[in-house]
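Sequence in, structure out.
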Amino acid sequence: MPNMKNAKKAVKTIEKKRVINNNYKASMKTAIKNVERAVASKDKDAAKEALKVAIKRIDKAGSAKVVTNNYVARNKSRLTKKVNDMQ
């Protein structure tokens, strides 16, 4: 447990940031799973809608520096490719 005043404040600040970052990451992962489920069920319209949401969530997590830029680009590319390859 911290003793100094600034260290106590840092603990509070870090905890708030951790909760916010977890929300970004969890919503991003859920959106990615929704796209993959729609692709697996071969529902092209649902997959396209889910892809829009997923890209938005992935970009938000990237801009908040929760995930790296390479992770953002890789996942957007993979998901878009899966949706485009559907018949």
